[in-house]
Amino acid sequence: MPDLQPSGPASLAGLGVSPGRTAGPCLRMAGPPALPAPNPVTDTGAELAVVGEALEAVAEDLRRRSAAVAGGGRGAAEILDALAMMADDPMLKEEAEQGVRDGLDAPHALDAAFARHREALAALGGYLAERAADLDDLKHRAVAAALGVPMPGVPSPGHPFVLVAEDLSPADTAGLGPDVLALVTVKGGPTSHTAILARGRGLPAVVACAGAAHLVDGTYISVDGATGEIVTGVTEEDAARVREQDSAERARLAATSGPGRTADGHPVKLLLNIGSAADLRPDGEGVGLFRTEFLFLDRKQAPTYEEQVTAYADVFTAVPYVVVRTLDAGTDKPLPFLGLPEEPNPALGVRGLRVDRVLPDVLDTQLDAIAEAARRTGAEAWVMAPMVSTPGEAAAFARRARARGIARVGAMVEVPAAALLADRLLREVDFLSIGTNDLSQYTYAADRQHPALADLLDPAQPALLRLVELCAEAGRAAGKPVGVCGEAAGDARLAPILAGLGVTSLSMAPVCVPAVRDALARHTLEECRELARAALDGR
């Protein structure tokens, strides 16, 4: 297929994952360094030193990037810290050093070591396969450092541009500068790091756009992060006009305030997804998802009881309504201190609440800390468990939480089994929160990171919406709240549909709140219900 030239308008289709519309010249990511022909090793000690220095340079660069973005929220910083830990992995270093001892020069030894680690992770599937893609980025950076050339990454042309890439690593996405207008990737999906971090920054983003591979640097394009449409060949004047319109729309939305309501006053709580108190923003009605795993993410040992109490109390003090999710980790999201064995299919293995089956002390300590933080602050703690699959699991979790005086106990709905028995879960717990990211993956048997299956992970798919409806109906019958805290909750196009299905709250990245509030306010409850009926029918 020939490159697309700016000779006239043409339309490309991708998957819109972060709303907003903008336009400008497109530029590509700098590619990985070319690996030269192997050099004979004449000084093993010197090559071993280069291996260590290269890995340390990569880790230090990631830590520096983490420190630079930490003030804007913990999500990006935590991802960068996790990548730095991967670069610091002693097993990786030992394998590269062994390659040198076997006669490889430092760049080739690093390349081979990363390749072997990538192959091992990719074979495990699920979340670990996503980590394998991260290893590609780390490999390119380490090889570049060993060769003494600049690390690959985002261009800095000195003017606004649309960044186009085959895919974006978390390190690249988290460290984007202010000149980047939007993101377009050939690969990726709606729950990739690119999508999540783009939404967190309010950058329009389109992923899984195969045609973007043939865009020419400098071509002016418009990007619609809601619909996934990319128009090529627009003029510079057209691009300026699109940006002005987008700025005006963002300013209008930023001026809105108040709780979530439909046009006729039906309430839908607008809540925030956070990883720590640093992520809190004033434009929300509380916290619908406190991801406590960020407290554990960069630790080789579990945080102490007092450290946990302090972290939870910081959030409880700042916000009157907080839903805490207990540790969402396992073999699909490996944390060093857990020491869990590898599994052939970790996405279907020991993760979330299931970690309690092998390490019950982790959950006990966390529940104790949450309860103590609530007592110290006078807060009413709402706590939910991830990856609940059966009413029995919900009942057991609820007993342990309530025994500690925790006021409200809930369950995440992330697998179809939980949605199908939502009414029975609600006999055991006080609320449900639907995690649409995993629920999509398990409903459609589609890996969240598989670029060719991104359309199946669209939260507007009728089967997924039917499962949401089942949960909402169960909540209405029981008189208990049912919210959505997956990435779908921050999609302004979906907000009226979810309200029409009966969802009582939506929890999202803070930047998404104004657009979701506005979308709800444009429709009456009956109009939301009609939109929901049409979506369930695939219309």
Automatic annotation (TrEMBL):
UniProt subcellular location: Cytoplasm
GO molecular function, one term: phosphoenolpyruvate-protein phosphotransferase activity
Catalytic activity: L-histidyl-[protein] + phosphoenolpyruvate = N(pros)-phospho-L-histidyl-[protein] + pyruvate
All residue ranges annotated as the PEP-utilising enzyme mobile domain in the record: 161-228
EC numbers for this chain: 2.7.3.9
Keyword Metal-binding recorded: yes
Name of the coding gene: ptsP
Task performed by this protein: General (non sugar-specific) component of the phosphoenolpyruvate-dependent sugar phosphotransferase system (sugar PTS). This major carbohydrate active-transport system catalyzes the phosphorylation of incoming sugar substrates concomitantly with their translocation across the cell membrane. Enzyme I transfers the phosphoryl group from phosphoenolpyruvate (PEP) to the phosphoryl carrier protein (HPr).
Top-level lineage group: Bacteria
Requisite cofactors: Mg(2+)
Ranges of residues in domain PEP-utilising enzyme C-terminal: 259-523
Protein family membership: Belongs to the PEP-utilizing enzyme family.
PANTHER family recorded: PHOSPHOENOLPYRUVATE-PROTEIN PHOSPHOTRANSFERASE (PTHR46244)
Gene3D superfamilies membership: Phosphoenolpyruvate-binding domains, Phosphohistidine domain, PtsI, HPr-binding domain
Organism, as annotated: Nonomuraea ferruginea
UniProt entry keywords in alphabetical sequence: Cytoplasm, Kinase, Magnesium, Metal-binding, Phosphotransferase system, Sugar transport, Transferase, Transport
Domain Phosphotransferase system enzyme I N-terminal: 14-131
Protein name per its UniProtKB record: Phosphoenolpyruvate-protein phosphotransferase
